[in-house]
Amino acid sequence: MGCPPCTTAAIPPLVGRGRANLDVFFDKFCARRADRQFNVGPHYTVADIFALCVVDFAAFVDIFIPERCTNLKRRQADI
Fold first, then answer.
1. Which of 70, 78, 19, 14 is nearest to 52 (CA)?
2. Has this prediction a pTM greater than 0.85?
């Protein structure tokens, strides 16, 4: 089934800003995951689900976890 193709044109400055912000997210999230199993506390929470969704939805527009983000890549592999 799937979603119909989007017919609304992208606004280039917003696309660039979104990609830059996602790159910052990847770096911050990778650093945060260096010494913890979950985002908040000792259990899987909504914060972990949100982060998973951000990473998974980014893949829909061909944005993937950068190679430098080893902690984040490890986390995704664990799920």
1. 78
2. no
Q: In 3D, which of 34, 70, 68, 32 has the Cα closest to residue 51?
A: 32
Task: Tell me which residue has tokens 């983000």.
Answer: 69
Contact 58, 64 (CB under 8 A): yes
10 Å CB burial of residue 71 (0-12, 13-18, 19+) is: middle
**Close Cβ partners of 44 (under 8 Å, ≥ 6 residues apart):** 38
Residue 29's CB is within 10 A of a number of other CB atoms, namely 18
Low-confidence ranges of the chain (pLDDT < 50): none
Sign of torsion over alpha carbons 68, 15, 20, 2: negative
The sign of the dihedral angle between the CA atoms of 43, 50, 79, 19 is negative
